[in-house]
Amino acid sequence: MSQTVLRGRILTFTDAPRSAEDTDCVRYIVDGAIVIENGQIIAAGEYTEVGWSAPATSTVIDHRPHLITPGFIDPHIHFSQMQVIGSFGVQLLDWLNTYTFVEEQKFGDPEHASRIASLFFDEMIRHGTTTAAAYCTVHAASADAFFTEAKRRNMLMIGGKVMMDREAPRALTDTAQSGYDETRRLIRKWHGRGRALYAITPRFAITSTPEQLEAAGALAEEFPGCYVQTHLSENHDEIAFTQSLYPEAPDYTGVYEQFGLLGPRTLLGHCIHLSEREIEALAYTGSVAVFCPTSNLFLGSGLFDWQRLAEGGVRIAVATDVGGGTSYSMLRTFDEAYKVLQLNGQTLTPLLSFYMMTLGNARALSLSDRIGSIEPGQDADLVVLDAGATPAGALRMETVTSLSEELFVLQTMGDDRSIVETYVAGVGLKSRLAY
Predict the structure, then answer these.
(1) I need a labelling partner for 262 at 20 to 30 A (CA). Which of 1, 36, 301, 421 fits?
(2) What is the rounded (10 degree) CA torsion for 85, 88, 90, 91?
(3) What span, in angstroms and rounded, lies between the C-alpha atoms of 42 and 379?
(4) DSSP string spanning 289-306?
(5) Between helices 110-126 and 140-152, what is the axis angle to 10°?
(6) Helix (H, G, I), strand (E, B) or coil at 76
């Protein structure tokens, strides 16, 4: 097989930085080389050692002076909500009824689903995101469209048909049995095929009857390699409504707990308003709390308390949550995450931000053996970054003297223009987009 060598500054992590000065878990190479063959990284290191030893027939792509990191990972996003992003003026439950449920009904049309799936993956690539965990709609055709487009681009993607059998328009509801049957069929069709992974997806407790959550739990037991994704404790009205529907549960988390839906592959969007008992339950089961800062601010849901959850032993991921979230960019997302933590008297360092975009989110998805770092044996999903891609960024970079400063400029001022190239399994895809 022919080899490709990417040359540039390399940044990757081996663990979570404990402070702004903690570089023990940071691997930074000023003139590095990444050797790619058959979609995987086979070597990475100093260019003088790794690059020069590659065969003379290798294709060398010189990205100097830009920074090469693992591709960004987004663990909570709604691909069907592209046309409701930036919808004005309401909080969660009204927002769902006013905008989201109206938009999602369009996905009963397979042609519409296919069109939006294509545009969705364009945005992922444009913003440097190479893996995401996505909610489709209740329509099985929306999941088929999502996975078909991911397969066409050879992207490692997690997705699932939403299950909801109440508290939604008739055109968006399944039944406990049909939701089970359709999800089971989609798992057998897609999970583990190529780079596709499936997420069992009850939207949230409000839109699922006990019978449907029981069916979702049965699927999780039958297919333990699949993910479970849903929402938890985003909004006070949502919590109160959930407790009225499930009065026997000790709390919102207890609803999912009693149906066997918590575990190391469970992704719980938001997790803002949790009791101590709920934190203990998430920590005990290894479930993942997914922080969605732009969405939480936009919908006025509340401020995620990172320190409290981390000290409680809860695994944490960070995501865009488009379309409640306001940007597809992980850079913009971490800019807002920094501000949320500032309001909570906490600090998000630039090193920790870039760890979370890459290896941290990969670990949260139990995928760090495949993605999230630049090491031999990893899939060659990579992003090339330029903090000076805009005039304002270039001006600011004139005064930058350290890697951490550069990362913070990317985080606070960067967007899709900062993404020079996005590599998926070693193939540059952003440069192929019709921008």
Answers:
(1) 301
(2) 30
(3) 9
(4) EEE-HHHHHHTT-----H
(5) 40
(6) strand
The model's pTM is: 0.97
pLDDT in tens, 225-267: 999 999 999 999 999 999 999 999 999 999 999 999 999 999 9
What gap in Å lies between CA 212 and CA 218, rounded to an integer?
Answer: 10
Number of CB atoms found within 10 A of residue 27's CB = 16
Compute the C-alpha angle 217/220/224, nearest 5°: 155
Torsion of CA 68, 50, 21, 385, to 10 degrees: -10
344 sits in which H/E element: none
Q: Which residues contact 152 (CB under 8 A, 6 or more apart)?
A: none
Rounded average pLDDT per 10-residue block, the chain, 435 residues = 92 93 92 97 95 81 98 98 90 86 95 98 98 98 98 98 96 97 98 98 98 98 98 96 97 98 98 98 98 96 98 98 96 98 97 98 98 98 98 98 97 97 98 87
For the record, the structure tokens of 42 come out as 């086979």
Q: Are 414 and 400 within 8 A, CB to CB?
A: no
Q: What is the pLDDT of residues 174-215, one digit of tens each?
A: 999 999 999 999 999 999 999 999 999 999 999 999 999 999
The angle at the Cα of 339, spanning 19 to 122, to the nearest 5 degrees, equals 100
CB 264 within 8 A of CB 286: yes
Q: Please list, in sequence order, all residues whose beta carbon lies within 8 angstroms of the beta carbon of residue 395, skipping any fewer than 6 positions away.
A: none
Report the C-alpha gap between 367 and 174 in whole angstroms: 31
Q: Which residues contact 56 (CB under 8 A, 6 or more apart)?
A: none
> What is the H or E stretch that residue 41 is in?
strand 40-46
Dihedral pair phi/psi, residue 229, rounded to 5° = -130, 135
**Cα gap 73→124, rounded to integer Å:** 10
Distance CA 325, CA 348 (A): 19
Structure tokens of 328?
């597809």
